Amino acid sequence: MLFGPLSTSLAPQVKSSRTLLKWITPIANWYANASGYRKLGFKYDDLLCEENPEVQRALSRLTPREAYDRAYRLKRASQASVVHAPLPKEQWTQPSEDIRYLKPHVLEVMKEEAERKMWDTVAVERK
């Protein structure tokens, strides 16, 4: 079971209710902006813990362009951290650009691992 950004989410239930979506969306936007990761040029999936084996395998499945973009964002944010200043406003990640590019790969790895465990524990019976 994973905790954090890849754990169970209430987003589908919130999105299905128009009233709840109207109330939660401003709070969610405020929280994303207050967390500050967009000011450093990160996308949400850049914050996933790389020590997790599923995330490691998912990172190896990124296209060369996605891997390059991720490395560039990490280096750029590292430089901004060294100078103790956020990036210029035009380099901040916009909410429309902040897509979950790594989560589908991680979920696929988790499904494969569950299937592997299932097949590894199959009891073979002789007829």
From TrEMBL:
Coiled coil: none annotated. GO terms for cellular component: mitochondrial inner membrane; respiratory chain complex III. It comes from Laccaria amethystina LaAM-08-1. This is Cytochrome b-c1 complex subunit 7. It is a peripheral membrane protein. Component of the ubiquinol-cytochrome c oxidoreductase, a multisubunit transmembrane complex that is part of the mitochondrial electron transport chain which drives oxidative phosphorylation. Belongs to the UQCRB/QCR7 family. InterPro entries: QCR7 (IPR003197), QCR7_sf (IPR036544). Its main location: mitochondrion. Keywords: Electron transport, Membrane, Mitochondrion, Mitochondrion inner membrane, Respiratory chain, Transport. GO terms for biological process: mitochondrial electron transport, ubiquinol to cytochrome c. Pfam families: UCR_14kD. It is found in: Mitochondrion inner membrane.
